[in-house]
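Annex B, item 7. Sequence and structure tokens for protein A, then protein B.
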Amino acid sequence: MVAVPVNRIFRAVSDPLRLRILHLLKHGEVCVGDLVSVLRVPQPTASRHLAYLKRAELITARKNSYWTFYRLAPPRSAFHQKLFECLETCSGDVPELAKDQARIERVRANGGCCPR
């Protein structure tokens, strides 16, 4: 198992939209359609950022028929674990995260767009 270079991980979390995605995924698995709805971005934009996070091994994907579901990857190193802890503590400093959280809760309450 080859570790992901730390600089790739830092580049992955340096984008505000990718931070928002990581925040949403810390509460469980989310499909691309629901991320598009919550983040209010076009599907290609969401997919591009998800691919970046996946290359940095911060998230994993699971296909289910036509839909792809994403979740946080299990920490592969102490650095990876500390990064997730850091993201948890800084979430209060990013105002969009509270709005995203409220939107994802509404989406989940309504069943979301992707069948489980």
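Protein B:
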Amino acid sequence: MSMNANMTKAQRREAARLEAQRVAAESAARDARSKRIIWSILGALVLGLVAAVLVVARPWETVTHDAAPNFDPVPLSEIANVPANTMQDGGFILTPTGGTTSVYNPDLPTLGIYFDYHCIWCYQFEMINLQNIRDIAASGEVNVVLHPVSILDRATPRTHFSTRALAAAGWIAQYSPEHFLDFHALMFENQPNEQGGDMSNAQIAAFAEQAGVPADVAAGIADGTAAQTYGQWVASLSAATLNMPNLRNPATGGFGTPTITLNDEVMDNVRLDWSNPAALPALVAEAVAAHS
């Protein structure tokens, strides 16, 4: 009802009341529409946030192909898939040029290095002594044997970086042995953080190619074939190594990486301060002199 000059006082009051009701109804309708819009926006935001959280919280959906399978406690002696150019106890024997070989000379002193690509202390050892290792291998006067041990899979429980990386090393020893030590060096130079850091199969393969490994060989690392082929070997070898009493540190009674041996004897901090770049060459030179 609209107002005009001929309306009575009562009619004007009724018209005012009806107008107020109309305005209130329109205002309520606008508020309802605004609330629906706001809740729709909030709902979309919440759904987007939930989706993002699921992607982060369910890493197995994005790294399934990078996860190492679970392995049974099979004795090392029963493993069929063993990389070429390794010793019976699993070590990679270096050539003078940094490749791997099946030739072991029992008439020479033997330097053993037990390592895990995820071990921060191994990283420090390698950064200080990598050139020493190259030089000692190049001399041809010593057997240099690198022993893989996956003791830090617990740092990456879903993907088992240590096992996958060491299986990749075995893959390279098998199919591109001349590039082994260059790959070994790159894995330490680019080591992920020990506290949960990780590396995908594709990243490991990229470092293999950077080391000179042919693309078709590196592809076997990228697609997980290397981990499937040599992962059990790594697991069984690691279990065997941890149970070898002669590898226990004489000072602590335990085993850790890096462990350095000379003629199968563990070199403790008294015999070898490997943080000193001159210490390892001096120790090896002494062994060579005593052996000749």
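Comment on protein B: The chain has nine helices and five strands.
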